[in-house]
Specification:
single chain, about 180 residues, mainly alpha, 7 helices, about 75% helix, about 5% strand
Length: about 180
Amino acid sequence: MAALCYVGYAVFPAISASGTKVHIGNAFVVIAAYLLGGLYGGLAGAVGLSIADITGGYVASAPRTFITKLVIGLIVGFVAHRFGKISENHRQSHIFKWAAISAVCGLGFNCIFEPSLKYVWYTLLFPNPDKAASAIKALLAVTTYTTIINAVINSVIAVVLYMAVRPALKKAGYLLKVGK
């Protein structure tokens, strides 16, 4: 799953708008959380996308990427498995509903968390007034729209892919019972 997260970022084109990248790596973080649970799914995303940052020339942002992707996985996994119980036998409509809700929760939270973490990072941990000002601007300006667009695109992709592969995984006996 970490490799899929990496591929979703590094191989598929990424569009940069004011420092915010639109890519499909987060979709695979969400799918990993559906399949493996929040912790392992988040770790897969954290590792895969941190490696993508490092190999893509964004070494300085890799620690923040690790934290944000881990949190996305934790939230998606928590909502999907604790509340939706998506790894149990339910109607497709139930699985679809909770897959969508959990993706929106995890990626929606990231829309606020990522720029907030960047602000704290450059204000308290590694003071850089210009980058801190840029991060706070991101909470209020155009890059937030890019983050929201990224969240919507990745939510749709994750839910569609998960709903497509889930029946085959279940039939083959590879659908894990997460949360048990």
